[in-house]
Write a structure and sequence with these properties.
Shape of chain B: elongated
Radius of gyration of chain B: 27 Å
Strand content of chain A: 15-25%
Number of domains of chain B: 3
Number of helices of chain B: 11
Order of helices and strands of chain A: EHEEEHEHEHEEEEHEHEHEHEH
CATH class of the largest domain in chain A: Alpha Beta
Helix content of chain A: 25-40%
CATH architecture of the largest domain in chain A: 3-Layer(aba) Sandwich
Order of helices and strands of chain B: HEHEEHEEEEEEHHEEEHEEHEHEHEHH
Low-confidence stretches of chain A: 247-253
Structural class of chain A: alpha/beta
Oligomer: heterodimer
CATH superfamily of the largest domain in chain B: Succinyl-CoA synthetase domains
Structural class of chain B: alpha+beta
CATH topology of the largest domain in chain A: Rossmann fold
Helix content of chain B: 25-40%
Mean pLDDT of chain B: 89
Distance between the termini of chain B: 42 Å
Mean pLDDT of chain A: 93
CATH class of the largest domain in chain B: Alpha Beta
Number of domains of chain A: 2
Shape of chain A: globular
Largest sheet of chain B: 6 strands, antiparallel
């Protein structure tokens, strides 16, 4: 079992002929993801690593029946590409692209909600259900099939934590990168609900960071969960009002502080790791392994 | 990107929002000249931080001479770390009462949110919840006139004032959408006595903030630009990397915003003081990383700490960047490198050949950096202990080396 994507995923890559698109298509194929077609306007008829390229999403879907898409489209064109994917009926749209204008992101999410599509990102490393499919850019070697569901806002920090979970021999059911931007498709709660329902998932790891109120909102749902939750929050030392890379990683007007997040999570019964490398230990302890 | 008040008001005025008459001045003489034209004025420091009134950045002046004195006092003033280079000299308003109005992005709802209050002039955070009125705006249809009538009703506005308020909200929403704004805030939204206005009252945007989405600037060549960064921050950002200056003595470079923040947290946990946030990105190339390291060296830290978990970033590229920076400018201070991930073996070997031993454990690398900086947390890794190094890997535990 896994959430959102599994071995049935038939994946399109939008922007497949670009540097990033081509490189990560190779990586996804190596991982075993069924990348059935690519889309690059004006490049229809070409091939990338043996994957056929089409000019439009509809043309690719008509020929291959895809149900998911990964976008490596430059930020100014990401909105158009995401609308194209959603309009063609794709169920899961992963927007890897960074620096998507936030007004475009709001429009994408409104359209996705109308059509019932799941958007991951923008500014995400993607999603991986180990042993089944990887949609996005994380390194293949960090994953192992297992029992832990991981949901994170940031990329490399979750690689570090996912890797430690693999080294503990616990492995993951699905690892979801929600994306570092302020407006993204999934909330922690959307993902936690799915992990709570997923039979294979025995414990959940939440990797958050300062800024916004997503972790505090997640805590409300964690109260109702039967599975153990371990959390790590980055940004304890960040001074207020400084933007630390992600649009999300900023404390403004006293909201979204480290302390408020940790208090909310602990009050909800989650175990909060002080250091990133302690997460895997806490998960092992929670599972009694 | 935050705009200065005078720029924000310029944009608002171009969309038909009523703003007071005013002019920017960068000298006491220019301020006096503007006051001569407008009569009694407010002389306002132009800075990108809030709270300038309490900090002495706003003064009233009845005469050109007073305006000259006010400008002389404010120009060059240090407000929360920013030097005041310009003042805005603005016609004094006959304010009857003050409202609050803003449009922001509600990240959780993924929609624009209009926030209004009949109690303006103070920080909205200090206004009691019961006095705040909120309205989400659907992104598909945008703000409709009925939204503004409902907002006015909930604020207790009636008659022509309610009509002016609705007009103001519609115009601000147009600004919000057309400029890709993250925030449009008018506080105070002043209700002014004006015999010429219907009902004798006129709404004026007495102060204005406009923050534009950095990621959308490419489609707004017409908007003015501001830079809110120190010279060092500018140099690193020009390399395409994210950089924020802090106040410590351990320079940090890591890859990815989350892990960079976590690195700062860990250093601080062990009693160290990070000097900066430098996110070399998820897939940074050797050249900008080398240049960024050179900038770090130039800032004169006690220690440089490079913490890399290579996913897309390849460890051999990181090693080459470190060696290139050392060849280019020399690295006179101690350097602590933690290197794990893609192409780890090659990266570690490249560094070892040049006498740099990389750590595998983030924990031990961080403690080493803090101890080298003279911090209090030398526990367990004193004496140059090889435990956390790649070569020994004894204390690293979990036999992790093999997985790569």
């Amino acid at each position: 079992m896994a959430i959102i994507v599994d071995e049935k995923a038939k994946v399109l890559v939008q922007g497949i002929t670009g540097n990033q698109g081509s490189f990560h298509t190779r990586q996804m194929l190596d991982y075993g993801t069924r990348v059935v077609a690519g889309v690059s306007p004006g490049k229809g008829g070409e091939q990338v690593h043996g994957v056929p390229v089409y000019d439009t999403v509809q043309a690719a879907v008509d020929s291959h029946g895809a149900n998911a898409s990964v976008l490596f489209v430059p930020a100014p064109f990401a909105k158009d590409a995401a609308f194209e994917a959603i309009d063609a009926g794709l169920e899961t749209v992963v927007i890897v692209t960074e620096h998507v204008p936030v007004h475009d992101a709001m429009a994408i999410m409104a359209f996705a909600a109308e059509r019932g599509a799941t958007v991951i990102g923008p500014n995400t490393y993607g999603i991986c259900s180990p042993g089944k499919a990887k949609l996005g850019i994380p390194p293949n070697v960090i994953f192992q099939p297992g029992v832990v569901g991981v949901v994170a806002r940031s990329g490399t920090l979750s690689y570090e934590i996912v890797n430690a979970i693999s080294e503990k021999g616990l492995g993951q059911t699905t690892v979801v990168g929600m994306g570092g931007d302020r407006v993204v498709g999934l909330t922690f709660i959307d993902v936690l609900k799915r992990f709570e329902r997923d039979e294979a998932t025995q414990a959940v790891v939440l990797v958050g960071e300062i800024g916004g109120t997503a972790e505090e909102e997640a805590a409300e749902f964690i109260k109702t969960m039967t599975k153990p939750v371990v959390a790590y929050i980055a940004g304890r030392s960040a001074p207020p009002g400084k933007r630390m890379g992600h649009a999300g990683a900023i404390i403004e007007r006293g909201r979204g502080t480290f302390d408020s997040k940790v208090q909310a999570l602990e009050a909800a019964g989650a175990r909060v790791a002080e250091m990133p490398w302690q997460v895997a230990d806490l998960v092992a302890a929670a599972l009694g392994t | 990107m935050k705009l200065y008040e005078y720029m924000a008001k310029g944009v608002l005025a171009s969309y038909g929002v009523p703003v007071p008459a005013g002019r920017v001045a960068d000298s006491p003489e220019a301020a006096a000249g503007a006051a001569g034209e407008f009569g009694p004025v407010a002389v306002k420091a132009q800075v990108l931080v809030g709270g300038r009134g309490k900090a002495g950045g706003i003064r009233l002046a009845e005469t050109p001479e007073q305006a000259r004195e006010a400008a002389a006092a404010i120009l060059g003033m240090n407000l929360k770390g920013y030097t005041v280079e310009k003042v805005y000299v603005e016609q004094k308003l006959a304010i009857e009462r003050e409202l609050y109005l803003s449009i922001a992005i509600d990240a959780a709802a993924k929609k624009p949110l209009v926030i209004a209050s009949a109690h303006g002039g103070m920080n909205i955070e200090d206004v009691p919840e019961k006095d705040i009125v909120r309205q989400h705006i659907p992104i598909r249809w945008g703000l409709m006139p009925f939204h503004t009538r409902e907002l006015a009703r909930r604020l207790g506005l009636t008659g022509d004032l309610a009509r002016q308020f609705g007009d103001m909200v519609l115009k601000l929403f147009t600004v919000f959408r057309r400029t890709d704004a993250e925030l449009v805030e008018v506080n105070p939204l002043a209700v002014c006595r004006d015999a010429a206005a219907p009902g004798g009252l006129r709404l004026v945007a007495a102060d204005a903030r406009l923050n534009v989405d950095d990621d959308a600037l490419f489609r707004h060549p017409d908007l003015p630009r501001t830079v809110e960064a120190s010279p060092v921050e500018r140099r690193v950002r020009e390399l395409g990397l994210a950089y924020v200056e802090l106040e410590g003595d351990i320079a940090v470079m890591a890859n990815g915003a989350g892990i960079t923040m976590a690195t700062l947290d860990v250093l601080q946990h062990y009693g160290g003081r990070p000097m900066n946030f430098l996110d070399a990105g998820g897939g940074a190339a050797a050249e900008p990383m080398a240049k960024a390291l050179e900038v770090l060296v130039s800032t004169g830290p006690k220690v440089i700490f490079v913490n890399i978990f290579g996913g897309i970033t390849r460890c051999d590229e990181v090693a080459r960047a470190i060696l290139a920076a050392r060849d280019a400018v020399g690295i006179p201070m101690p350097l602590v490198v933690r290197l794990v991930g893609t192409n780890e073996e090659e990266g570690v070997r490249l560094l070892a050949d040049q006498g740099i031993q990389a750590f595998r454990s983030m924990d031990e690398a961080a403690r080493r950096a803090v101890s080298l900086a003279g911090g209090p947390a030398a526990t367990g890794v004193g004496g140059g202990g090889a435990g956390g190094f790649h070569a020994g890997d004894a204390a690293g535990g979990s036999g992790a080396g093999g997985r790569w």
